[in-house]
Every structure is written in C-alpha cells, then in structure tokens.
Write a structure and sequence with these properties.
Layout: E1 16-17, E2 21-23, E3 29-31, E4 39-40, E5 51-54, E6 57-60, E7 65-66, E8 70-73, E9 87-92, H1 106-109, E10 120-121, H2 124-133, E11 138-142, H3 150-162, E12 166-171, H4 177-183, E13 189-193, H5 199-206, H6 210-222, E14 226-233, H7 241-254, E15 261-265, H8 280-293, E16 298-301, E17 311-312, E18 319-324, E19 327-330, E20 371-376, E21 383-390, E22 396-404, E23 413-417, E24 422-428, E25 434-441, E26 445-451, H9 463-466, H10 485-497
Parallel strand pairs: 9-11, 11-12, 12-13, 13-14, 14-15, 15-16
Antiparallel strand pairs: 1-6, 2-3, 3-4, 5-6, 7-10, 8-9, 17-18, 18-19, 20-25, 21-24, 21-26, 22-23, 22-25
Helix pairs in contact: 2-3, 7-8
The protein binds iron/sulfur cluster.
Residues 31, 33-34, 36-38, 46-48, 51, 97, 148 line the site of iron/sulfur cluster (SF4).
Length: 498
C-alpha cells in the first residue's frame, strides 16, 4: 500500500487493529481518536498518517514502533510537583494529530519524514523489563505526541501499573473524550501543553482547534489526576502579557490555583526557524502576571540558571526544590510532600526514594583499552542524549562523569547493560561551573551522542554523523521547506491588535 510516498518504508507495512473505529456503509472508516474524526477510504491513511483503512477496518501502523526509549528526568516533561528529580523512561512514537509550525520533533511527529533508521521496535513486556532493570518507576509517553500511539500505550501502561510503575502522559491533548475515557484507568500524571488561549492561534499554528484541548484538561483534572500545564511562549506571537493573563484566568476559573503552570521558552525550528528565542524578560513578566492573579506554582521552562525554576513554599516562602536545567534536588519537602519548615502542602506528590546505586570507580578496573569520549556544553546546548549499545554476549558497564572547572570533576556514575542491549539516556548540565561530560566505554560498546535542543526534544541525528552544531539555537539538520510561516503569524497577531 502506498502511504503518501512512504510505501518503501518498512515500518508502514505491518498493522494492528485500532480502537475507536466506526465502520461506514461505503467501506470507509471513521476514526474517533482525535477530534479530526478522519473519514478514511480503503487503502488510505488519516491526517496523522499512522492510522489507516485496510480491508474496511481501522488499523494502527505504529503499534510497538517508536523512537529509541530514553532515560530522562521528570523535569524533562514539565512536571515539577511529582517526585522532583525522578528518573523516567521516555517513550516516543511516530506521527501526530497536529502539525505545529515550530515543532522541534517534526522529524518524527510528521510521519512522512520518518525513515526506517529512526524506528525501534518494542513489545509492552520489553518496555516494562527495561524500566524495572534500570530502576525506573515512571514511564513517560511523550515527544511527538502520545495520542496517536493509543493502543500500544493502553497495553503497556496496563502492564506497567500491574508492575507498580507510574504512567505520565505528556501531550498537546488534541484528543476525543472517548479516548480519554480509555486512558483514565491507566494514566496517573497528565502534563499538557496548552499552546495558547487563542482559537485563531490554534487554527493557524497547530492546525487543530482549542475547544477539545480545554475540555480534555478539565476532564482529567476532575477525574483527580495530577495535572500540570505548560505554554510555549513563541516570540512576538504568544509571549505577550495578554496570553499569560487569559491562560492564568482559565486555570483559576476551571481548575484551581495550585495547578502548576510552566511558561516555556521557544527556540526557532521546523517552519519557524527564521525566528528568535523568547526574550527571558517576557517569560518573567508572564510569571509575575500569573502569580499576581493568584496562581500558586508558576515556573519558567527551557532556561537553566534561574530562580524562576525553583519551588518555594506558598505559605512560608522556604526553598523546597532547587532546579538547574533538567536536574532537581529536594531541599525542603518531607516524605509526604509537605514543607519541612511550616508543614504546608504545596501540591507535591513524592515517591519513596530508591537507594542510589553503589558507585564503582573505573580506576579500580583494567581500563587501558576503554574508549574515552567527551562532550562540552556550548551556548544553549546544555543536555545530550547518549546512546550506547552492547554488541557483546556478556554484560558490560559504561561510565560517565561531569567535567568541572579546575578539574574538580564529578563522581563516576555507571549504567549496566545486558548482552546486546541498546540504551539511551540524557545528561543535562547541572551547575554553572560544569563544562561537559566524559565517558569511559569498554570494548564492544558502540556509542553516539545527540545534541538536545530544549526539553522533550528527541534528536534523531548523532554528532558522530553530522558534527556539532555551530548555531546553538536550532538543530543543524533543519526543515528544507518554506520558512514563510513566522512573518505571516506576526502579521496575524498585529492585525488582531489593530
Ligand atoms: S488519530 Fe486523528 S488524525 Fe489520526 S486518523 Fe484518527 S482522527 Fe485522523
């Protein structure tokens, strides 16, 4: 079957039955997963290009197919009030029910750009086994967008719950109520990207519409789930005071003032690479507005060394959690998430702490034949994904540590790999005086590094293949199509104001 020119891609060939189908009398099927409700003719695909009509039935093309699973921290997902600093296993797939002009995961969210080299195959059991073996308690359904991975998420999240794991759903949440009903029994945390408060912005920038997103947020919040909301502040388009005000008002009116809100810094990408990063003072202004209106927990995202990412007690102002980039440290919460100083509850959920791994010093091993590798932070590139594969038939250990000024390097940390295992994990700058990361890799371990541009970004290209980016605000391999969207959108905003 030809799928918009993708017939040569192996990943499109196999399919699985899909939920939420309506069979129509003319042989078409209607998909009830996202509010688009695509009516799909025999042999064709829906807007997302990962759901199709095969023999008159709705099928999913991406079941168990996604990008490489990646160990990150929960802060990567704009979740600040659930077990700060917690390790997560991030799981991203292929396709999306939206097509946002600035998408930093466009290479995987827009299925026509996905090639077989980007796709990894997992069973639900493999996902759970990997999380448990690496001491991870939270699965995060993320990156492109989990909505279009519905059936695989339901199957895996159910198994995860049975294994005692938590499920986090990070999404733009352009989804139907019927689909949310299927998610509610298995998802514990919803981190939702509310992209704007403007209907016109939704139509023009995301290709979706705002109403189902707002209804969806209300539904999961009133179902008692842990909810955090983030808003990308796009330079000169949505980073204005009005945007901060209307989003804050909606949260106050429809949810409650203790729902955490994150104003997130934008970087140029995809069809809007001809733009600039959000000025930081506009983010601070948005935070001040939201707090003055009564929101209790307001944060800035995609900035590193800034107190606006810390958590303070709403009652006594004590410092509760310090954050630097994607790292967090609990300094003032008790085991039940209350302020250690005054006992106030600031809407934090905490998980029981796992004992940290006993350190191993590689200097005590015979490391003369180990490969050494380094990466140095530069500009806005302050985190990387390291992907390592154990090509041998024996278990192996890889080491890494933080390179600091004056050679005051961090402790060696390690990750154990079973035979033939491929593993990917993030390392994010954790202190101003940190210069980069150093790796020690035993024989038989292949490795590559990927520069990460802001949180929840899944880079597909390795620096070993494309080199280090010189421009540190947008990825080196960019979108080749037209870049005319950004000026048009600025014009749209200005016309609205006139
Ligand atoms: S998930 Fe949404 S975009 Fe994809 S086929 Fe279904 S209705 Fe269409």
């Amino acid at each position: 079957m030809s799928i918009n020119g993708l017939s040569t891609q192996k990943w499109t060939q196999e399919s699985q039955p899909a939920n939420l189908e309506e069979i129509l009398s003319d042989g078409s099927v209607k998909c009830h997963l996202s509010p688009r409700n695509c009516v799909i003719k025999e042999g064709r695909v829906g807007f997302c290009k990962v759901r199709a009509n095969r023999n008159g039935r709705l099928v999913t093309l991406n079941y168990g197919k996604g990008v490489h699973n990646t160990q990150e921290t929960i802060e990567t997902e704009a979740v600040f009030h659930f077990s700060p600093g917690e390790k997560i296993l991030s799981l991203g797939n292929i396709g999306c029910m939206l097509n946002c002009g600035y998408c930093h995961n466009w290479k995987t969210s827009q299925a026509k750009y996905v090639t077989d080299k980007d796709v990894y195959y997992y069973t639900p059991e493999q996902v759970i086994e990997s999380a448990l073996r690496h001491g991870i308690k939270v699965l995060s359904w993320t990156y492109n967008d989990p909505v279009v991975w519905h059936e695989f998420i339901l199957d895996t999240a159910k198994l995860a719950k049975e294994a005692g794991l938590i499920n986090l759903y990070k999404s733009a949440f352009f989804i139907t109520e019927e689909a949310i009903d299927e998610l509610l029994p298995v998802i514990d945390i919803f981190s939702i990207s509310l992209k704007s408060s403007s209907s016109e912005y939704y139509r023009k920038v995301t290709t979706g519409w705002i109403e189902p997103v707002l209804e969806g947020i209300k539904k999961v919040y009133h179902a008692g789930k842990h909810v955090e909301i983030s808003t990308l502040m796009v330079t000169d388009i949505s980073d204005n005071e009005d945007s901060a005000r209307t989003i804050s008002k909606w949260i106050l009116d429809e949810l409650d003032p203790s729902v955490p809100l994150h104003f997130v810094r934008f970087h140029p990408d995809y069809k809007m690479a001809n733009s600039t990063r959000t000025p930081i003072d506009r983010l601070h202004k948005a935070k001040t507005i939201a707090q003055e209106m009564g929101l209790k927990h307001v944060y800035l995202g995609n900035i590193n060394d800034d107190e606006a990412t810390n958590s303070y007690c709403y009652q006594c102002s004590s410092l509760l959690v310090t954050r630097y980039g994607l790292n967090a440290e609990n300094v003032g919460l008790d085991k039940t998430g209350h302020c250690l100083k005054c006992g106030h509850y600031n809407n934090f959920i905490t998980l029981q702490k796992t004992h940290s791994k006993k350190p191993i010093n590689p200097k005590h091993l015979n490391i003369s034949d180990y490969e050494k590798k380094e990466f140095h932070w530069h500009g806005d590139i302050v985190s990387i994904h390291a992907q390592v594969a154990n090509t041998t038939n024996i278990s192996n250990i890889i080491f890494f540590r933080r390179i600091m000024e004056n050679k005051m390097h961090g402790e060696w940390e390690h990750i154990s790999l079973v035979p033939k295992e491929s593993y990917r994990f993030i390392i994010a700058k954790s202190k101003p005086q940190e210069l980069g990361t150093e790796f020690l890799l035993p024989p038989g371990i292949s490795s590559n590094l990927h520069e990460v541009f802001d949180r929840a970004h899944f880079p597909t290209e390795a620096i070993e293949d494309i080199g280090i980016s010189m421009n540190d605000t947008t990825p080196k391999i960019g979108y080749k199509g037209k870049q005319n969207m950004y000026p048009q959108l600025i014009k749209m905003v200005n016309n609205d104001e006139n």
